[in-house]
Amino acid sequence: MGYSKKYLPLLLGVAVGAGIYLGSKLNFSNPSAKLFSYNAKKEKLNRLIDYIDYEYVDEINTDSIVEVTVNRILENLDPHSVYIPPEELEGITESMQGDFIGIGVSYYQYRDTIAVINTIKGGPSEKSGLLPGDRILMADTDTLFGADLTTNRLADKLKGVDNSVVKLKVYRRGTGVFDVKVRRGRVPLQSVDAAYMIAENIGYIKVNRFAETTYKEFKKALKALKKEGATAIVLDLRDNGGGFIAPALKMADEFLADDTLMMFTKNKKGAIENNFATKAGIFEQGDIYVLQNENSASASEIFAGAIQDNDRGMIVGRRSYGKGLVQREMALGDGSAVRLTISRYYTPTGRSIQKPYENGNEAYFNEYLQRYKNGELQSADSIQVADSLKFKTPGGKVVYGGGGIIPDVFVSKDTTRVGETLSYLLRSGVMGRYVFEELDKKRGYYNALPKNEFVTTFEVNTELVDGFMTYLQRRNIEVELTNYEEQLRKFLKAAMAQQLYGTDLFEKILNQDDKMIKKVISLSKRKTVY
What we know:
It is built from 20 helices and 21 strands. By secondary structure, the chain is of the alpha+beta class. The chain starts with 7 loop residues before the first helix and ends in a 5-residue tail after the last helix.
């Protein structure tokens, strides 16, 4: 921490003072001009910190004191008011902006080199001729191989100013070492993972988060699917933890009639801000099915609530996370920021779907375990609701507040948990690294393999399956997949598709035999219309 335990009473005293100081600065009843105006009490704390800095007998890291204090204050407000240190803010901002300036490759730090997994379609590296499997050895005069590689160092060398040129030295198996110039440009961070037809008239769109570019990506996908003949849309928001509210509302606007209430917020003064559908959407007449699970949160729940409360479509899956607090990100002047809860949001019927957090952050974030113990991940009858939080939609459907969006059609979680295990192996990168090594053994063949041929004729053979199990054993990763070889084959093929062709085919393969998608297809045959 940068200081001794014997100074703990002193630090706690400063922390309390800093809490009062920061609390006074976060008084949103004042205009911004007055928010940071001179105040004798604030000045007292400033002097105390200066005295510790310049006069105290031992060296004290007052920066650490302030950072600890900020975190402690926010922890006692609510689970979603958080401090973002300077070193994390840039990455978070990029993710939510939806793009960054760079060369447009995804890569592994493989052994002691930078190995290209794939290039971003239409991005700078693809235009310059880089291929999956290439090793980037140098960027201009900087060496990018060796044991001392760091993620930050790599990012600094590959990112840069828009339209600037970087000279890369690249090694390609079968070709050798060569130079290539890449002109940096805007590289998109996809928030729409997949868009394709899952049945003759049903289009499918998967959204992984709500960033600044999400609505634009979604609208493009929706138009394309409608052109292909989609009269129903499945919007997959499973594991979508949210993001910006605006894109979620714009997306809902495409399905809702003009002047339909989509959501409203209320701050501590009771001021209400309504959000209505504002224009003619391009899918106001077609059916919509929203897929969600226990990890669908925030903006995902705003979208689902707008659809459900207006009797516009069907929510399929399990109860969502239950985050109904609205945050605003505010700079703290040193490159860091605070994401502070400023209001609550409510669905059109007036529901707050924020789950309780009075028992502290640990209990709040572990609430999933309680759902598991209660059995609600297996049975809709186990979902606990309160009659006092009962609401009715205009069509007479009963909905509940108090903790997440309860689906119209329940789909239980996989009891074998093999899907969770395989998903973990994917997310952790273990499966991806194994797949990369296997692809690298026959890189020329795989780079030239047409997509349709991969889909229709390529099979994950026993050698690949056994190789992966051996790969796990060598890394002391113990998983029991003996009876689930077919599922493992599917996940391995999906991981290969992701590296070779992108997320669209990856999701398409993973969705084969998906329980929720099967349920939607079954429901669509009943012609249930909202």
